[in-house]
Design goal:
This protein is α/β, with parallel strands linked by helices. The protein folds into 3 domains: about 80 residues, Arc Repressor Mutant, subunit A (Orthogonal Bundle); about 100 residues, D-Maltodextrin-Binding Protein, domain 2 (3-Layer(aba) Sandwich), CATH 3.40.190; about 80 residues, D-Maltodextrin-Binding Protein, domain 2. The protein has 11 helices and 11 strands. Helix 1 packs across helix 2 and helix 1 packs across helix 3. The chain is flat, with a radius of gyration of 23 Å. The N and C termini lie far apart (about 65 Å). Keywords: DNA-binding, Transcription, Transcription regulation. InterPro entries: LTTR (IPR050176), LysR_HTH_N (IPR000847), WH-like_DNA-bd_sf (IPR036388), WH_DNA-bd_sf (IPR036390). GO terms for molecular function: DNA binding; DNA-binding transcription factor activity. It comes from Donghicola mangrovi. This is LysR family transcriptional regulator.
Length: about 290
């Protein structure tokens, strides 16, 4: 094998089962994943994956290669951890998803220098692979299936359906936040009550701005919504609680920096929200045409 980097592609396709899933984890495109897997198969003279419905299933030989890649990744992580332990200053990278982006954790960032002065925190919105060392901690409300990870619950979020106070008695439609699967129950409730959405956005923060200016409802995390002037939750729709999970690689179970970061995250979610959630007047959801 001339390029050991090909093992990453084999491991990613085995983990995620689809070319698109592997490409997303590796931050590349489907064509590159397909080309690297095909090239490795030709170089070794053996089929590595077979199509099984919508998934790619690893052959026994691919399973062996994936195990080799996993053990190599574990050893590299251990070496990297030892190197980081001997260096100064300390650093921890934290990635988070849309739900965490709207949480009270973001408010706690301003106090980081005072609460944890000896660690440099790098917080980034968006996905990243723990298995491939792209981040140290990933925060999400959606359980992960990536291998060799430690899962720890660090908090709870509440979500609800909100509207602008100026529009609470004349709502016309609602907005879907694309890709936020934690809000699917809210989206289903809105669909049942109000019909098809008028708009689809991929940014919950932008969504909060839009509903303050337009007669639409949207599902938002309560932590964020209560800090916005002029938002009201719709009490006829049920609120929902979401467990917040922190994931890190199993090779870092004893890493003190990781545990200091997890303690800060957990304490941030315990902090009380000073702003109050104000209910809207229960509007008449017999909708008028937006074009009327």
């Amino acid at each position: 094998m001339h390029n050991w980097d090909d093992l990453k592609y084999c491991l990613a396709l085995k983990r995620y089962g689809t070319m698109s899933g592997a490409a997303q984890a590796l931050k590349t495109n489907v064509a590159t994943v397909s080309r690297r897997i095909h090239g490795l198969s030709e170089e070794l003279g053996i089929q590595l994956f077979v199509k099984d419905g919508q998934k790619w299933k690893a052959t026994p030989f691919a399973e062996s290669l994936a195990e080799l890649a996993e053990s190599t990744d574990t050893e590299l992580s251990r070496i990297r951890q030892e190197g980081e332990a001997s260096s100064d200053p300390k650093e921890v990278r934290i990635n988070y998803d849309e739900m965490i982006r709207q949480s009270r954790l973001m408010s706690a960032v301003s106090n980081l220098f005072e609460t944890v002065p000896n660690i440099t925190f790098k917080l980034r919105f968006g996905s990243a692979s723990l298995g491939f060392g792209e981040t140290d901690i990933f925060l999400t409300t959606i359980p992960l299936e990536e291998g060799n990870l430690v899962q720890k619950r660090v908090g709870t979020l509440r979500s609800a359906i909100w509207c602008g106070s100026a529009h609470q008695d004349r709502l016309q439609s609602w907005i879907r936040v694309e890709g936020n699967t934690s809000m699917e129950e809210h989206h289903s409730a809105l669909l049942d009550e109000m019909g098809e959405e008028h708009m689809i956005l991929n940014d919950g923060l932008l969504c909060a701005e839009v509903i303050q200016r337009a007669p639409f409802a949207a599902a938002l995390v309560e932590d964020y919504a209560v800090r916005q002037r002029g938002l009201r939750f719709l009490p006829q729709f049920a609120k929902k609680e979401h467990a917040v999970w922190a994931y890190f690689h199993a090779t870092r179970r004893q890493d003190k920096v990781i545990h200091v970061a997890l303690d800060w995250i957990a304490e941030s979610f315990k902090a009380k929200e000073e702003a109050l959630a104000i209910p809207a007047k229960i509007p008449d959801l017999t909708l008028k045409s937006i074009d009327a």
